[in-house]
Write a structure and sequence with these properties.
The protein is an alpha/beta fold. It has helices at 26-43, 57-65, 76-84, 99-111; strands at residues 71-73, 89-95, 115-116, 119-120, 124-128. The strands form two sheets. The chain has a three-stranded parallel beta sheet. Strands 3-4 form a two-stranded antiparallel sheet. Strand 3 (115-116) and strand 4 (119-120) form a beta hairpin. Helix 3 (76-84) runs parallel beside helix 4. The longest helix has 18 residues, at 26-43. The relative contact order is 0.11.
């Protein structure tokens, strides 16, 4: 992400980074993502990882690039963040309650061309609305 405010911290020593901060060994993360993708591919299954373990669109993007069909989020707000980062197949795993949350998802989907005249144009957001 070109406008990532944390990009300047990449390569710094741990004691030079403002906390709290998520520090990731990218080699290990990529290896783990690849291993999981390989397991799923060999099993003939699709993978939709939940973002609750990392809550970062950059890692979600690595998962999708490795073969995940999309991501799962816990909240509407997390889904909006993932959508704005270019992840366009999202399952919101919990009920989406309240007009503000539903409106935020609809506006984000429309802004990212997921909704076109009320029909999915590309990608999808799947919701459980009571």
């Amino acid at each position: 992400m070109p406008d990532d405010p944390y990009r300047a911290a990449i390569g710094r020593r741990r004691n030079e980074i403002e906390t709290p901060a998520l520090l990731v060994d990218l080699d290990v993360a990529r290896r783990n993502i690849s291993t999981m993708a390989g397991h799923m591919q060999r099993a003939g299954k699709h993978l939709r990882p939940h973002t609750k373990t990392h809550k970062t669109p950059q890692i979600a993007r690595l998962q999708v690039e490795a073969g995940a069909i999309g991501v799962s989020t816990a909240t509407a707000w997390e889904a909006v963040v993932m959508l704005e980062a270019g992840i366009d197949d999202i399952l919101v795993a919990n009920e989406v309650v309240g007009p503000g949350r539903i409106r935020a998802l609809a506006e984000a989907a429309r802004a990212h061309a997921l909704l076109e005249s009320g029909k999915a144009a590309r990608g999808r957001i799947v919701l459980d609305i009571p």
